[in-house]
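Second attempt. The first submission of Regulator of G-protein signaling 3-like had a stray character pasted in from the spreadsheet, which I only caught after the job came back as garbage. Lesson logged: always re-copy from the clean sequence file. Corrected sequence (172 aa) follows.
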Amino acid sequence: MKNRLTFLRKKTNDRHGSNPASKLEKVLKSDKPTPEEALKWAESLDVLLSHKYGLVVFRSFLRTEFSEENLDFWLACEDFKRIKSLSKMASRAKKIFTEYISIQSCKEVNLDSYTREHIKENMENICADCFDLAQSRIFGLMERDSYPRFLRSDIYLEFTNQKRPGSAADPS
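This time the job returned cleanly.
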């Protein structure tokens, strides 16, 4: 299993001034869940996202599906809600909009036109909940789409010591 999970150690871009690869190393070494803990990730997407190791594994899965931007956007919104300073909030809101909402941005998330317009209007009067609608839509997308596939993925099944139905190791 160790060899099959080495892709989790893949270095990522240093976006926030700290080294995500070293954070990943720390999580991988210290917080590895038991199969029983990993099974709890199947309770809900909220449970998965609240577990540090689960978050890392889910991000790695999303990377294989080329949809990591959904989780990045959701996490950026969570961080945004914790900002107290209005000037920092305005700056971060513009960054989130440019990075995830703008048409043709490199990490554009899949949102309907109503939600995009709603965010554009909110950008005129920035507040802590100005991305809530978009965040809930992206959460719903992950919950309906990526999360069920994650629960059927080899990486999740390895963590829970389960086998994929129909695999060579499955006698049925």
